[in-house]
Amino acid sequence: MKIRLNYWQLLLLLLPFIAGITLNFKYFTHTVPFTYLLDARVMNFFLTLSMCLMVCYQAYLGINFNNSRPNRSEWFNFNAYIPVVFNVAYLLYEICFTWILPVHNHLSPGPIKKSDLNPTSLVIIVLLIQTAITFLFVNTQYVSKRIKLITDIEQREDAKIDFLNPMRKLLKLSIIVVASSLLISIMVDIITFGVMSK
Fold it and tell me: How far apart are CA 38 and CA 29, in angstroms?
């Protein structure tokens, strides 16, 4: 079974991200600590859910294509599974400590709170970077180059339709939505803080 999503179906994967960014628009406007923290947790959960869906779908396409080829790359499969395992684990962590066993943090005085960089944080940062590199550069490029090596024209076109085109659509739509959302978020923050400072 092949899962080929069109642009509208791919947009559904990004809906949690859009919802999270929408919550970010009012994130800084709350004066009530409970509402402030609740919005922050819900926003973070939505962003994590959307990232997990995108990474898993791209890995599904890439790994299925790789396994369909005669000389498959075990390194590619291993590298593609790392972001999947990390994002699923992080999503479960978010669900656990946001909804099941919520941790009640206290707001720190001042505009910036103290951040402790421990070994766990470093591992998460490294895995986030690996996820970004794999999602943006490795998977789609690998599939594209392997498809070019297919000599049979019909098989090459089928591989493009089944694997490469959905991966390119996902990548393009992800970049457009993320860039647009961040730009709108920055503009809203500038307008909000500009009005609040007057």
Answer: 13
Q: For 43-47, 84-88, 138-142, which range has the lowest pLDDT when averaged over its residues?
A: 43-47
The C-alpha R_g of the chain, in whole angstroms, comes to 20
Cα–Cα nearest to 62, from 162, 197, 174, 192: 162
Q: What is the pLDDT of residues 153-187, one digit of tens each?
A: 999 999 999 999 999 999 999 898 888 877 877 77
Tell me whether residue 17 is exposed, middle or buried, using C-beta atoms within 10 angstroms of its C-beta: 0 to 12, 13 to 18, 19 or more.
buried
Under 8 Å between Cβ of 159 and 65? yes
Question: Which residues are within 8 A (CB) of 131 and not within 5 positions of it... i.e. 6 or more apart?
Answer: 51, 55, 82, 83, 86, 87
Closest CA to 23 of 194, 188, 183: 188
pTM listed for this prediction:
0.82
Contact 169, 10 (CB under 8 A): yes
- Evaluate whether 156 touches 147 at the Cβ level (below 8 Å): yes
Q: pLDDT tens digit string along 91-120?
A: 998 888 777 776 555 555 555 555 667 788
